Amino acid sequence: MKHPAPDYEPAGSSALKITHVDKPISLCGLIGDISVLVCIACLIISIADNAACERRRASCESLPLEEQFSIDCRRTWCNGWAFIMISAIMWPFLICFSCYNHNSTTENYLKTYMKTKKKFSSPEQAIAKVERYVQNIINTKVKAGIEVKCSHRTTRNTSYTDSNGKHHRRTETVTVTTFCHTYNFTPVVSSIDNSPFSGDDINRLDYHNAKTKCLAFDSYISINVPEDLRRFMEAWRSHLQNANRHRDVTVNATVIIEPATPLVSNQMIPIDFAYSCFLTDSTYCLFTVFGCRSLYELIIRTDISTCEINFKKSASMVPNAEAYSPHPAGGETLPMSLHGAGKVPVSPDGGYSGGAGKV
């Protein structure tokens, strides 16, 4: 139910403050990146050394036959191809290892940074955008639902072509979802915001003295759910899971309680609008191609300051919530009621479904 969020410390009149990036960089990722660079260096050196050896051997072959077996010519047997093959084989594996250890937060930072830099021309405009976002999350209500998914595992035969152009067939096991529906429980939930800041606090951030080129915002949210609402949603979750059990082999029901306005977990705005060769999509793609994402993060972290935004909300049940029953998807084997009572009125702004915040 609660999204994990780091503790915050009020700074002056606001709970928002700017800090330098202190997120740990994967040591395994850095080792993988360094290994990729070493592998590339060995590959280049081996190719250059092998080319020089081939030139010496060609010059020896032009000598008289008796001189071709001299000590100097016998030293020109070239074994660089072995190192070239080893490096060429290891490179893809090292790149895959580096990509596996990448941090998606950096991708989110760069994506929003590039969009903001194209759309605005000053840090004040960019800050105003974040201010509106923060105020929207504060003003938004909490929505609730129960997502039911029915699925089964099956095997299927697929064909593929190998590197030699030969066609092969293989059997793989996949999950097939046959039913997915989110039952709306937003009408029975009310909420208030307890965040210790407002959108105006974004404008009060002393970003001009951050001494970095960018300011990143990491958003977290914690939704306090009382025990009566938790029991109510759990009872309906179990009921709806049993009501749809006939649809397929596997039936999963998940309670979802989250803000109606989606949270932007990671976003970054420019403070200095001057061109930076590292803070671009092309540079990031270049480091990615060579499998050096962790090294890229280590380089750019000195250019980024961060501000953690910890939203807090409290949810509660409306009066007569026990009488509510959601709109059926059709085909349920149990009645859409826990107690057989009538429904509470559905508000016009209800009807939300889906989401990421789960009990």
Note down, in words, how this protein is organized.
With 359 residues, the protein is α+β, with helices and mostly antiparallel strands. It has two domains: 18-23 and 103-148 and 182-323, no CATH class; 33-100. The chain has ten helices and eight strands. It has helices at residues 27-61, 65-68, 71-74, 80-100, 104-119, 123-139, 200-203, 227-243, 281-289, 293-300; strands spanning 18-20, 142-161, 167-184, 189-193, 214-224, 250-259, 266-270, 304-317. Strands 1, 4, 5, 7 and 8 form a five-stranded mixed β-sheet that branches. Strands 3-2-6 form a three-stranded antiparallel β-sheet. A hairpin with a 5-residue loop joins strand 2 and strand 3. It is flat, with a radius of gyration of 30 Å. Residues 1-13 and 340-359 have low confidence and may be disordered.
